[in-house]
């Protein structure tokens, strides 16, 4: 044994081939400080050994190396810039020293080689991957860029165009594509991986493969003439500007770094990479996106733990109420291999539900994501029925009928009479109290909310709502079912609107008050989309939700939380609803919807909407961006804080993920609590106080005021 550490070992075979094996304690290999230090020690040991002809780098696990240890980032990035720069420079130099070993090296890659794992492979002279491998640099998803030499080695290996596409999108590559682009040298079956790697590196050691010139090209300036460089980098800048926009600095920094480093050798280029990495590490976007990653891990971890504790196995689902929502839920279940009965009271609704599933599948076929076999299997797993008897064997029944407590109550009662004693009954209500609905059942302990978001196949979140009588067994089984259906479950406690809609409707109320104070809804949408970063501004979102749905939900919220959510007098939403301007569903709302000359969907601000609002609003006036954002976001933030303080949601991290997955909260802002913390709790309190005169939705809780005074954090 040449070297033995906790995370990696180096041994030497009789023919002089060293094997550096990453096999860290735990389920995966990742670059934490300990592993980086051990890599350096192992490199020194190999360099001074004298008897090594070549080296193979491989994993002792089912994946190569999944990347850096992100859990170390938060505390590290809070250090002064010089310290962060020192850390990333020292770490990247460990990879340099490995690259400079006096013999050829090869990476034998299985499973994931991402981020630092990919950079480890790039530091080798050759790379062979097996058919399970995925290789890539996904740092952009954390608001960062590669920091261990990725921006230097990859462009010199596959060209700057390909390298920038890898890095700015963060998409990983399977073996054949990586081979086609020149990032790897061979793709082999898993059982042949080690033999292929040993054979190739032995050939290099014997002089049959020119490893020195390969290494030299990675350490030299990029081979681009002036015209090629100008074309390459201007194209990349335009691509990034169009795809990422102004809110995500990481892809812009990558292009700038590769461009400025094009004429430099490895050491000069790495210096620019280190400096760019540190600048990004200090951005709000990186803090937010790293926060999202960690929150996502928390949510997934809780979900897996609850699913593991489930005592009931779910083999069949049922959906009550077809139509677009019911069809979407049925599709989601069937597409993930869980057979589902779709029950309704009329054939037309069943046809609509089936056509919704078929539409989603047809779109998948057009995009090449679904083949005929998958389409047939999915549709065959959906059984439409007009009879309650069809659901008698279902393990989980999801009621998705009209959002009316009386109708839902009748359906739930009838369902309980048909299904097995241990079947779980859920309601896909978006606002109605689960405790209220549970009163219709003789066994409320097996009942909970299971709130899907529209469109079901696209929105990752399912809110699981625990009623006062719901057992943990019920919750665990529904969490397991949600995961089986490919969705992210977040468990919340019962209240009007639960979590997502409870925080959304004060946002809508803030919008309505602003419009009544003379704001132009188009201008508000523009600010909330372009400046704040929402995928849709509030007027456009209301058109998508539907004015009938929004007005009804606002009434439910007003009844449930009258002290803050009483309906707004002359609410533009109600005005449009009463004028039968329902939004996208009938092509007229705040906007008129149609098609342009090329047949593409179009929307234009509706003169009719302005005319309906004008008699009830102040004279038109312009508001600055900061005021528009404050007047919409303070109510949302305040209600989210109340949900956390009241125990509706268990943590700030889960609230952030719920809004991200359920509403499309801008990822570069990290979620509602990350947004408040980025602003600073003291500044948030001061801003809310400035608008407190506008009503209860702007007035903060004593809890947040105390937290600000004590300098506390929601993420401590």
From TrEMBL:
Pfam short name (any one): ECH_1
Enzymatic reactions: a (3S)-3-hydroxyacyl-CoA + NAD(+) = a 3-oxoacyl-CoA + NADH + H(+)
Gene3D superfamilies registered for this protein in UniProt: 1.10.1040.50, 2-enoyl-CoA Hydratase, Chain A, domain 1, NAD(P)-binding Rossmann-like Domain
CDD domains attached to this UniProt entry: crotonase-like (cd06558)
Top-level taxonomy: Bacteria, Pseudomonadati, Pseudomonadota, Gammaproteobacteria, Alteromonadales
One GO term (biological process): fatty acid beta-oxidation
GO molecular function, a single term: enoyl-CoA hydratase activity
UniProt xrefs under NCBIfam families: FadB (TIGR02437), PRK11730.1 (NF008727)
Name this polypeptide is given: enoyl-CoA hydratase
SUPFAM superfamilies in the record: 6-phosphogluconate dehydrogenase C-terminal domain-like, ClpP/crotonase, NAD(P)-binding Rossmann-fold domains
The family this protein is said to belong to: In the N-terminal section; belongs to the enoyl-CoA hydratase/isomerase family. Belongs to the enoyl-CoA hydratase/isomerase family.
Leading EC class: lyase
Statement: the UniProt record of this protein carries the keyword Isomerase: yes
InterPro entries: 3-OHacyl-CoA_DH_CS, 3-OHacyl-CoA_DH_NAD-bd, 3HC_DH_C, 6-PGluconate_DH-like_C_sf, ClpP/crotonase-like_dom_sf, Enoyl-CoA_hyd/isom_CS, Enoyl-CoA_hydra/iso, FA_oxidation_alpha_subunit
Key words, A-Z: Fatty acid metabolism, Isomerase, Lipid degradation, Lipid metabolism, Lyase, Multifunctional enzyme, NAD, Oxidoreductase
EC number, UniProt record: 4.2.1.17
Presence of keyword Glycoprotein: no
Pathway: Lipid metabolism; fatty acid beta-oxidation
GO cellular component: fatty acid beta-oxidation multienzyme complex
Domain 3-hydroxyacyl-CoA dehydrogenase C-terminal: 497-592, 628-693
Sequence ranges assigned to domain 3-hydroxyacyl-CoA dehydrogenase NAD binding in this UniProt record: 318-495
């Amino acid at each position: 044994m040449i070297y033995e550490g906790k995370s990696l070992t180096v041994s030497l075979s009789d023919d002089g081939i060293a094997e550096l094996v990453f096999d860290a304690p735990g389920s995966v290999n990742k670059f934490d400080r300990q592993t980086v230090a051990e890599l350096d020690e192992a490199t020194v040991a190999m360099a001074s050994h004298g008897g090594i002809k070549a080296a193979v780098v491989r994993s002792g696990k089912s994946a190569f190396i999944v990347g850096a240890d992100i859990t170390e980032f938060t505390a590290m990035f809070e250090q002064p810039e010089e310290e962060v720069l020192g850390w990333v420079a020292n770490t990247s130099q460990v990879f340099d020293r490995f690259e400079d070993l006096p013999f050829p090296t090869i990476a034998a890659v299985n499973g994931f080689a991402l981020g630092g794992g990919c950079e480890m492979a790039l530091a080798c002279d050759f790379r062979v991957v097996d058919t399970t491998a995925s290789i890539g640099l996904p740092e952009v998803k954390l608001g960062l860029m590669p920091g261990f030499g990725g921006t230097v080695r990859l462009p010199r290996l596959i060209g700057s165009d390909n390298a920038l596409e890898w890095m700015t999108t963060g998409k990983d590559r399977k073996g054949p594509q990586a081979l086609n682009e020149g990032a790897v040298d061979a793709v082999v079956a898993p059982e042949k991986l080690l033999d292929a790697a040993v054979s190739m590196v032995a050939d290099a050691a014997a002089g049959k493969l020119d490893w020195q010139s390969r290494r030299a090209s990675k350490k030299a300036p990029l081979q681009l003439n002036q015209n090629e460089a100008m074309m390459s980098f201007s194209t990349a800048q335009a691509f990034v500007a169009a795809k990422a926009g102004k809110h995500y600095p990481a892809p812009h920094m990558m292009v700038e770094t590769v461009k400025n480093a094009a004429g430099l050798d490895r050491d000069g280029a790495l210096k620019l990479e280190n400096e760019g990495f540190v600048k990004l590490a200090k951005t709000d976007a990186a803090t937010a996106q790293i926060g999202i990653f960690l929150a996502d891990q928390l949510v997934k971890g809780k979900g897996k733990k609850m699913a593991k504790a489930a005592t009931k196995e779910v083999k069949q689902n049922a959906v009550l109420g077809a139509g677009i929502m019911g069809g979407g839920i049925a599709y989601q279940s069937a597409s993930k291999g869980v057979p589902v009965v779709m029950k309704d009271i009329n054939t037309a609704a069943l046809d609509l539900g089936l056509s919704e599933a078929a539409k989603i599948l047809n779109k998948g076929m057009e995009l090449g994501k679904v083949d005929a076999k998958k389409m047939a299997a999915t549709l065959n797993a959906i059984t439409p029925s007009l009879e309650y008897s069809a659901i008698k064997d279902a393990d989980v029944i999801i009621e998705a009928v009209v959002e009316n407590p009386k109708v839902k109550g009748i359906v739930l009662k009838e369902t309980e009479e048909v299904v097995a004693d241990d079947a779980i009954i859920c309601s896909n209500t978006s606002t109605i109290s689960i405790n209220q609905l549970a009163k219709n059942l003789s066994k409320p302990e097996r009942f909970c909310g299971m709130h899907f978001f529209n469109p079901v196949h696209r929105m990752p979140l399912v809110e699981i709502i625990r009623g006062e009588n719901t057992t943990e067994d019920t919750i665990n089984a529904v969490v397991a079912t949600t995961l089986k259906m490919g969705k992210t479950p977040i468990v919340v406690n019962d209240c009007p609107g639960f979590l997502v809609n409870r925080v959304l409707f004060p946002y809508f109320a803030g919008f309505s008050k602003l419009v009544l104070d003379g704001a132009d809804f188009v201008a508000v949408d523009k600010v909330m989309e372009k400046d704040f970063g929402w995928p849709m501004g509030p007027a456009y979102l209301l058109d998508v939700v539907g004015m009938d749905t929004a007005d009804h939900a606002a009434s439910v919220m007003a009844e449930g939380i009258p002290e803050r959510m009483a309906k707004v007098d002359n609410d533009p939403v109600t005005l449009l609803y009463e004028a039968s301007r329902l939004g996208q569903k009938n092509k007229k709302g705040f906007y008129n919807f149609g098609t342009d000359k090329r047949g593409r969907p179009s929307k234009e601000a509706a003169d009719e909407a302005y005319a309906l609002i004008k008699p009830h609003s102040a004279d038109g006036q312009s508001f600055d961006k900061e005021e528009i954002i404050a007047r919409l976001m303070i109510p949302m933030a305040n209600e989210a804080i109340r949900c956390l303080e009241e125990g509706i949601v268990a943590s700030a991290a889960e609230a952030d993920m719920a809004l991200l997955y359920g509403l499309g909260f801008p990822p570069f802002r990290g979620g509602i609590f990350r947004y408040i913390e980025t602003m600073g709790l003291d500044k948030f309190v001061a801003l809310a106080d400035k608008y407190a005169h506008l009503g209860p939705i702007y007035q903060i809780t004593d809890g947040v005021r105390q937290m600000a005074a004590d300098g506390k954090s929601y993420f401590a």
